[in-house]
Design goal:
The complex is a heterodimer of chains A (about 425) and B (about 375). By secondary structure, chain A is of the alpha/beta class. Chain A folds into 3 domains: about 200 residues, Decaprenyl diphosphate synthase-like (Undecaprenyl pyrophosphate synthetase); about 110 residues, no CATH class; about 35 residues, no CATH class. Chain A has 21 helices and 6 strands. Chain A is globular and about 85 Å long. Chain B has about 375 residues and is an alpha/beta fold. Chain B has 2 domains: about 45 residues, no CATH class; about 260 residues, Undecaprenyl pyrophosphate synthetase, CATH 3.40.1180. Chain B is built from 12 helices and 6 strands. Chain B is extended. In chain B, about 40% of the residues are buried. The chains are: A alpha/beta (about 425), B alpha/beta (about 375). At the A-B interface, α2, α4, α5, α6 and α8 of A face α1, α2, α3, α8 and α9 of B. Chain B: Pathway: Protein modification; protein glycosylation. Chain B: Its cofactor is Mg(2+).
């Protein structure tokens, strides 16, 4: 025990000695510079897990563990941004974490406040290096002073470009998704500005007859999602028909797709009339419904965006991470192999999820490097052999996959090619 | 890399809650570590158009050195990966010899007997192979997994396959699983099987009398749920559309949308397969399904997610329910980058279960 302690002290002393320190920092520079030469993930997320377990196993205070965790974060941010990562998202605090001891929560809050307060003092450096800080999550759950510090830091850096640091402060992914759904619904249920027919036709870049044709085509082959819609809103249809003045609506409504109904809501918009001319029978229903809707809203000239235009991109655009590149890499330390309500939406497409068996305060370039190398290897292999698995488009149909079958087995040749290229480069 | 001296200074400052050092002092510590601002070509507006660098040769040599290091690292990393791959392949084969099920439920039960806990809901991510008979292989894999789950005592198995091709062939799949089960179990104690997919009715072709006879006491039952990419983000899109519609009609205000509401709606789709879908599509619904439907209630959140692939990628898996799901990838941690999904083999399954039993659970505390 005693010898090992002496040894570790000796090791520390050697590592801390100026020449070794210099050599290590040069080596790091070299490695980071080397990483830059290949493809680099654009968006990396970290779950900073293991601070407390690290503190426990090293018999230091929990708060001290969090401080060491912050140092690890600084190290990793340096490595990430210098190797060309554009966006780093960190899971700093979960909404669930409010359940922890008050002492610890307060300490974490205090830490965040102090760090961000310090950050705000170095405005010119931040400006020069162009890092942007964003806070993702329920800021309204924070203490006022912490909230103020966050707002100030976000405000100060909001004009910077280049690199983005997303701090998920009180965050859970379910909350985020719910919020995105709510915001989308709110946006779609705000009436558009009433448009006069003349200005509307000038303003709109779309051909109205084309839209009408599209809607007809849609109504002939109703899309599959209808099943859910109808399943979720039986009461909706009933109550709608109760308040309607015309009896025929009741019969027509279930068979007519909702998109049509909403096209009809704006009586001032001329596309609806085109549509009505085309489909006289449905028009009666749509017209009836549009009157009905307008009555409900007490806004006779209001027109809504059609809910049929909502896509998964719409929801993605209402998440906290809007505008960021897709998540390429998600790293969780401490060996726990769960997402714990982090980036559920963002991480479910082409994200490589990596669980590392290392506590966050110990996490450094040496752990990050193999992950990056593996990612680079996979991506560069995809470029050589784009049909291989894990392609960015991701949705290859079975037919396509069958076509790709000849190239799926030639793993070794492509690798040889890579090596060959490398050898050539070396020769140069 | 921060030097020891500066780190100590920094830690002192942290201990005093950032009062010891002034902003200027902190900047002084920081400055040596910042890269030269001129290196950062940020903001295309201040375009210096490759202003002649002070040290062109040094820059060139540096970039060459980095390029060289990059190739060198990747050569060695590739070698390392190959070695690890070979090692894992060896271990895998050895495990495959030691642990083989021999189509005997008792053996499988013995393998899982000593585990502290078993998942109540196991989810697997499979991918289509590229051979001609990919669908047949896929269905056989599902059948094998179903048999293993049944034997291990896992009541719910959900199978995710991105394209959703499995959903389109539920009857043949049911047949395949039944055949597989009959090769594991005697005909006298054939366990009960329920197979369904969201928006599809429960498929159960056997008549009632036959079913009661087949689900003999002690043989357990298994529910197989088929998922595809459309049950993921698309479901949220549909939900949002419906909610937006309701909101536009003034039947709901956006503030009413809570996590509980979304959770209830999303869970309903994967746990209650039947009524609405059956009522909507008359041609699909048959009598058995409507009888069967109330019996189905499964835990929507999987406890363990097994990814049969070379690396952990969710590939469009429904996002909502995997919040606390343990994930396990049967492929090697490092190797096997090319090629598609790994073969579904028993030792991968059993390793996943071991892994799950060893993992500890903490709910945000």
């Amino acid at each position: 025990m005693a010898t090992s302690m002496h040894l570790s002290r000796l090791r520390k002393w050697i590592v801390a000695s100026p020449p070794i320190e210099f050599a290590i920092s040069k080596l790091r520079d070299l490695l980071v510079g080397a990483i830059r030469q290949g493809p680099v993930p654009q968006h990396v997320a970290f779950v900073m897990d293991g601070n407390r377990r690290f503190a426990r196993s090293h018999r230091i205070e929990t708060v001290e563990g969090h401080n060491l965790g912050f140092e690890a974060l600084a190290r990793i941010l340096e490595v990430s941004y210098r190797s060309g990562v554009k966006v780093v998202t960190i899971y700093a605090f979960s909404i669930e974490n409010f359940k922890r001891s008050k002492f610890e929560v307060d300490a974490l809050m205090e830490m965040a406040r102090v760090k961000l307060g310090q950050l705000a003092q170095h405005g010119d450096i931040l400006d020069r290096y162009g890092a942007q800080v964003r806070v993702l999550g329920r800021m309204d759950l924070l203490r006022p002073d912490v909230h103020a510090a966050f707002t100030k830091a976000v405000e100060m850096t909001s004009r910077n470009g280049n690199c983005v640091l997303n701090i998920c402060f009180p965050y859970t992914s379910r909350d985020e998704i719910t919020g995105a759904v709510r915001d989308t619904v709110a946006e779609y249920s705000t009436p558009l500005q009433p448009v006069h027919a003349s200005t509307g036709s000038v303003r709109s870049p779309f051909s109205e007859s084309h839209i009408a044709l599209k809607i007809q085509a849609q109504s002939q082959s109703p899309p599959e999602p209808q099943a859910t819609a109808a399943e979720d809103t039986p009461s909706d249809i009933e109550s709608g028909s109760e308040s309607s003045t015309r009896g025929e609506v009741e019969d027509d409504h279930p068979s007519s797709p909702p998109g049509k109904v909403y096209e009809g809501t704006g009586s001032s918009f001329s596309s609806s009339t085109t549509l009505h001319l085309a489909e006289a029978k449905a028009a009666a229903a749509a017209g009836g419904n549009s009157d009905n809707d307008n009555d409900n809203d007490n806004n006779t000239s209001g027109k809504f965006q059609s809910p049929e235009t909502i896509t998964s991109q719409t929801i993605s655009d209402h998440l906290y991470t809007k505008g960021n590149p897709p998540l390429d890499l998600l790293i969780r330390t401490s060996g726990v192999e769960r997402l714990s309500d982090f980036m559920l939406w963002q991480g479910n497409e082409n994200t490589e999820i990596v669980f590392l068996d290392v506590m966050w305060p110990e996490f450094d370039l040496w752990h990050f490097l193999p992950v990056l190398l593996r990612w680079q290897r996979r991506i560069s292999k995809q470029k050589v052999n784009p049909e291989a698995e894990g392609d960015f488009e991701g949705d290859s149909t079975p037919e396509q996959q069958k076509q790709q079958s000849p190239s799926s087995t030639d793993d070794v040749p492509s690798d040889d090619m890579l090596l060959h290229n490398d050898a050539k480069l070396k020769g140069l | 890399m921060v030097s020891q001296r500066d780190r100590d200074l920094f830690r002192d400052d942290v201990r005093s809650r950032g009062t010891k050092l002034s902003a200027a002092e902190r900047e002084k510590i920081l400055r040596p570590y910042l890269p030269d601002p001129s290196d950062i070509s940020r903001r295309p507006t201040q375009r210096r158009k490759k202003a002649p660098r002070k040290t062109p040769i040094r820059t060139f040599l540096k970039s060459q050195l980095h390029q060289f290091t990059y190739t060198l690292i990747h050569i060695f990393f590739g070698l390392y990966v190959r070695i690890v791959q070979a090692y894992h392949a060896l271990v895998d084969r050895i495990l495959a010899i030691i642990y083989y099920h021999h189509r005997t439920p008792e053996l499988i039960r013995k393998d899982v007997k000593n585990l502290d806990r078993l998942p109540e809901h196991l989810s697997v991510v499979l991918s289509m192979r590229r051979e001609d008979d990919a669908l047949a292989i896929l269905m056989d894999d599902v059948a094998e997994l179903a048999a293993w789950c049944m034997s291990a005592g896992i009541p719910v198995l959900s199978v995710y396959e991105k394209s959703g091709i499995l959903k389109s062939c539920i009857p043949p799949l049911h047949q395949t699983i039944t055949n597989k089960l009959s090769s594991y179990y005697d005909s006298s104690r054939q366990p009960a099987l329920q197979l369904f997919a969201p928006h599809h009715p429960v498929y159960n072709p056997s008549s009632d009398s036959e079913r009661t006879q087949s689900s003999a006491p002690g043989s357990g039952s298994l529910t197989v749920l088929l998922l595809s990419a459309t049950d993921g983000r698309e479901t949220f899109v549909d939900l949002t559309k419906t909610l937006a519609e309701m909101s536009q009609n003034g039947k709901l205000s956006p503030e009413d949308i809570t996590m509980e509401l979304v959770d209830a709606e999303i869970s309903e789709i994967t746990t209650q397969p039947s009524q609405a879908a059956a009522a909507l599509s008359d041609d699909n619904s048959n009598d058995q399904s409507s009888i069967e439907s109330p019996g189905v209630s499964i835990k929507p959140e999987p406890d363990l997610l097994l990814v049969f692939g070379s690396f952990l990628k969710l590939d469009g898996y429904p996002p909502w329910h995997i919040r606390l799901t343990e994930m396990f990838c049967t492929g090697d941690k490092i190797s096997n980058i090319s090629g598609c999904g790994e073969a579904v083999e028993y030792q991968g399954f059993i390793r996943g279960l071991w892994h799950y039993a060893g993992a500890q659970m903490r709910f945000g505390r």
